[in-house]
Fold:
Amino acid sequence: MKTIFTTILLFALVSCAQTQSKNPDIPLGSKKILPNEAVATFAEGCFWHAELVFQSLAGVRDAVSGYAGGTDAHPTYEKVASGETGHAESVQVYYDPSKISYQKLVAAFFASQDPTTINRQGPDEGTEYRSIAFYRNGTEKKIIEDEITRINSSHKYKNKIVTQVVPFTKFYAAEDYHQEYIHNNMDNPYVRGYSIPEWLSFKKEFKEAGFKP
Structure:
């Protein structure tokens, strides 16, 4: 990731195939498309973090890391990191509406990030880390906008929310090594030092929906 941990992370990414350490307590997706599910798409910084956040929610079957919000029809991690594609690191969330509502997904989206920082989440900085809520219809757009209004009115943050609210167009799945990255790379310094602590804090504070056992 393009962070203050750049040197460490580059080493981790190069050597992860040799140093993978899996954790059975990190929720995984089933990778099987089901007929009764709906799809939602969000961007909130590093997609490793976002994938874990949504996959841990009861009613979410899977979250896939990828790229959305840009114009490049053939995005890669390296191209997106350059900032020239317009894409943001995103997740495609597959969920059962009878078990978790879109409204709760949106609440989780805002609760698992700082939506007031422009092109930045934690140590990650760049347009690829901007906050975006993609909507597929007018109902979803209203849910997102109502949640933004609610949070701004609560004065939870000193600054106003800067999350982009845009119509969904296309999602591109990221490279295989990014999928289930946290589960498969528990020894990565970024995962240990940032991703896991952020996720545990989210689980402790978020009360809007249940978590998988």
About this structure: Confidence is low (pLDDT under 50) at residues 2-21.
